[in-house]
Amino acid sequence: MSTLGVNSYRFSISWSRILPREFQYFILKKNICESLIIISLYIEGRFGDVNQAGISFYNKVINAILARGIEPFVTIHHFDFPQELVDQCDAWLSSEIRKDFGYFAEVCIKAFGDRVKYWTTFNEPNMMVTKLGYMIGMHPPGRCSQPFGNCTYGNSSLEPYIVAHNIILSHATAVDIYRKYYQAKQGGHIAIVIAATWYEPLMTTTADILAAKRAMAFNQYWFLDPIFFGNYPSVMRQMLGPNLPTFTPEEKTLLKEKLNFIGINQYTTTYAKDCIHSTCVIDAFDGNALVLTT
Fold it and tell me: What DSSP designation does 275 have?
């Protein structure tokens, strides 16, 4: 990278590498036949110890690139999460995960923030975790329902929005911790990274123009509007009704001013065709927006 003249390097930290599952073994001696029973218990997440080998690994990466004049841009969460969070509390479907993520983020900020000046809380939460994990079921934990996918468990019209709600508030929790306790001292910046597909109407009709706007709302504004304005796009509320969670007044306060910059991953532009007033096969990826993309 140094030879190429690269001046920044964006990489992600593995949650399980920093807070792994730990096994503690207890050996009990039975009186009958003097046999031994070995019982193993595990401690996970915010209740376990920080893995110093993981901290050491990322310290080496950060120090090596800084020594070559390369600025680290560190993403705290990039799709992966400890299996134990799925087993114990359904991961992103539980509001408890906000505490887990806040703890994990603070461990990272405390360990690396003296050298890392650009943080992003989540990478593309509007795509991989929500849509591919809980709507289509192609990525872990593989939850979905018909007609979006064929999974054993899940509800594609409900769960992605619960997951998104918890991720948005987890982002706000991490930023709040950074702002209160670390930013002034460390002098860094914090943001979120969104997958930002652009949509154009397939035809210059009112229906397709509105379809393109709906697709935008159900894609990137889904995450950005709450952070900027404290609420979801109105078209999402109209179409999803009670399936779209609501923010409490306290949560809206927590969401205020929770970005220093915005990360944009822009891959492509697609056409959007209306599927409310037209007969068409709804695109599973943008299905709840009732559009066909092409």
Answer: S
For residue range 1-44, list pLDDT tens digits in order: 999 999 999 999 999 999 986 544 444 444 444 444 544 444 45
Q: Which residues on adjacent β-strands are paired with residue 8? A: 71
Residue partners of 62: CB distance under 8 A and separation at least 6: 72, 74, 112, 115, 116
Amino acid at 265: N
Is-contact 211 273, C-beta < 8 A? yes
Who's near 130: CB < 8 A, 6+ residues apart?
160, 163, 164, 167
User: Which domains are seen in the chain, by residue range?
Assistant: 8-293 (3.20.20.80)
Cβ 137 vs Cβ 143: under 8 Å = yes
**Whether pTM exceeds 0.85:** yes
Reported as a single tens digit per residue, the pLDDT across 181-196 is 999 999 999 999 999 9
Task: Tell me how far apart the alpha carbons of residues 226 and 266 are, in angstroms, rounded to a whole number.
Answer: 21
290 is written with which tokens? 């009732």
Cis-peptide into 147, omega within 30 deg: yes
Q: What is the CA radius of gyration of the chain?
A: 22
Cβ-in-10-Å burial (0-12, 13-18, 19+) of 155 comes to: middle
CA distances from 88 to 44, 45, 59, 96, 144 (A): 10, 11, 30, 10, 20
